[in-house]
Amino acid sequence: MFTPKTLFLTSAAFLGGLLLPAAVAVVHAQGVESNRIYACVRPTIFNAPNIRIVPPDTECRHQETLLSWPKDFPSSGTSTLICVACEVEDLLSRANVSSFVGVNLDSLHVATSDLRNADFSGASLIKAVINSNNMDNVNFSGANLTEARLKNSGLSGSNFTGANVAGASFRNSGLQQVNFTGANLQGTNLFNTALIETNFTNANLTGALNVNTANRENPIWSNTTCPDGTNSDANGNTCEGHLIP
Question: Are 215 and 237 contacting, i.e. CB atoms less than 8 angstroms apart?
Answer without folding.
Answer: no
